Amino acid sequence: MEDTLEDPPISAVMLDHCHFSQVIFNSVEKFYVPGGDITCYYTLTENFIPRRKDWIGIFRVGWKTTREYYTFMWVTLPADLDSKWTKQQEVQFKAYYLPKDDEYYQFCYVDQDGVVRGASIPFQFRPENEEDILVVTTQGEVEEIKQHNSELCKENQELKDSCVSLQKQNSDMQAELQKKQEELETLKSINKNLEQTVKEQKDSWETELLQLKEQNQKMCSENEQMRVRMDQLQAQLSTQEKEMEKLVQGEQDKTEQLEHLKRENGQLLLSLTEQREHQKKLEQKMDELKQKEATATKKQQELSDENFDLSKRLSENKIIYNFLQREKERMEKENDLLKRENSRLMSYMDFDSLPCQVPTSNQGSAGQNPGLVYGNPYSGIQESSAPSLLSMKKCPTCKSDFTGDICDHTLEQQPIQTLYCPICDKSFSAKEKQIFEDHMFCHSL
Question: Is the pLDDT of residue 58 over 80?
């Protein structure tokens, strides 16, 4: 294969996307002698614009993509792109890069996008006098060739059905060619004397005939391409059948999965219904608990209020208790003081009452004055007044008599105390002690 610095642009474009009629190959031989250079002649039509990366490759007949070229040569752009592009162009292939086998090949024009724009008729690389060469083949090779020929015939028969339109076009062109030939014969019979005119017309008809032959060769090439396309369609059909089987199997799997999902959905719906009923029961219980909680909260609030009242009353009772405790201690101290004062006064009273004692009449006649024969007439009075004298006491301070335990002088000397309420700060005198205690009791209610 040709050693180039840059590979040609290729693509995997299928044959049905190619445009074989935009470049026409001219003067293509049926075979070329091996060992010599060959020149490829081609013509660009008006519907095609050549570009710098276009190339011409030699392909083995039966190729499917432009990657399968055997060798290639870059095309030469016309010097004047604005001129008629139908002018014949050429490119030369060196003998060193040409195939060495006797397979069928063809020229193909490929643009820089990798799209085939034209294809030639098939040709071979073989010696010129190949008919004179004696070919010795074995019986097995003959049978293999026959089998190959039968397969080719079978494929050709299959392609005939798919090439009806091409055959119709070929028939139309042949009919047109026959018509042209009949017209040519008529012109020859009529214009025998006008040889020069007939010659010019003959050249014109020969040119048209050559074009028709080239079109016929092109249709043969397209027929071969249709056969290759048919093989590709068969392969695609087989692949699609396999894919269809996979899709059917996948559809069955999906149907089974759908049934399984339906069963699971039914179970989930049943479970959801049970959960909803359970949720309703829970909500009812929650409402009952909320009512109980509200009742308990209300009761707790009442107990808190009652506890607060009790706490307040307890605090007040504590204050009253502390106050009464202090009052008790003070009274006990005063009581002790009064007891000591009473003891002291009693000691003075006993000392002062000793000379005033008179014997009582209870002592009998033995106690009477023995010097009085008839007794003392004032003894009754003395006996009746004796207890009064005994109960009388003299105050050591003011020297006044008093009955009882404490002299009024002592009470007057004691300081008059004032009682204060620790809650409302109301004052009471010491003589109003009972009123003060009733007042404190009212605070505790």
Answer: yes
| Cα-based distances in Å from 44 to 90, 176, 217, 384, 403 | 11, 25, 17, 183, 168
Contacts of 160 (CB under 8 A, 6+ apart): 167
Distance CA 72, CA 107 (A): 9
Please name the helix (run of DSSP H) or strand (run of DSSP E) that holds residue 118, with its range, or none: strand 116-119
Q: Is 58 exposed, middle or buried (0-12, 13-18, 19+ CB in 10 A)?
A: buried
pLDDT tens track for 24-49: 999 999 989 888 899 999 998 888 88
Q: Which two tokens stand for residue 55?
A: 């190339």
Q: With b meaning 16 or more CB within 10 Å and e meaning fewer, what string describes 285-299?
A: eeeeeeeeeeeeeee
Distance of CA 315 to the CA centre of its chain: 64
Picking from 91, 99, 113, 95, the residue whose alpha carbon sits closest to that of residue 42 is 91
* Paired sense of beta strands 124-125 and 31-32, if any: parallel
Kindly provide the b/e burial profile for residues 75-105, where b requires at least 16 CB atoms within 10 angstroms of the residue's own CB: beeeeeeeeebeeebebebeeeebbeeeebb
Residue 25 CA from chain centroid, whole number: 63
- Kindly tell me if the per-residue pLDDT of 129 is higher than 80: no
CB-side neighbour CA atoms (13 Å) of 153? 6
Beta partners for 231? none
- Specify whether the CB–CB gap between 106 and 123 falls below 8 A: yes
| 226 contacts: CB under 8 Å, gap ≥ 6 | 159, 162, 163, 166
What is the distance between the alpha carbons of residues 3 and 14, in angstroms, rounded to a whole number?
Answer: 27
- pLDDT of the residue at 320: 86
Q: Cα separation of 408 and 410, whole Å?
A: 5
At residue 120, φ and ψ (nearest 5 deg) are -95, 175
Q: Which two tokens stand for residue 298?
A: 């209300």
Tokens of 343: 């003891």
- Contact 54/72 with Cβ under 8 angstroms? no
Cβ count near 442 (within 10 Å):
8
Distance CA 417, CA 438 (A): 18
